[in-house]
Amino acid sequence: MNPTLPESPAQGAARPEAFAQAPAPVTLQAPGLGRRMACWLYEGMLLFAVVFMAGWLFSTLTQMRNAVDGSRHPMLQGFLFLVLGVYFTWFWSRGQTLAMKTWGIRVVDRQGRPLSQPRALLRYLLSWLWFLPPLAGLSFFELGAGESTVIVLGWVAVWAVLSRFHPLQQFWHDAWAGTRLVRAEPVGRHG
Question: Which of 7, 14, 113, 140 is the least crowded, having the fewest Cβ atoms under 10 Å away?
Answer without folding.
Answer: 140
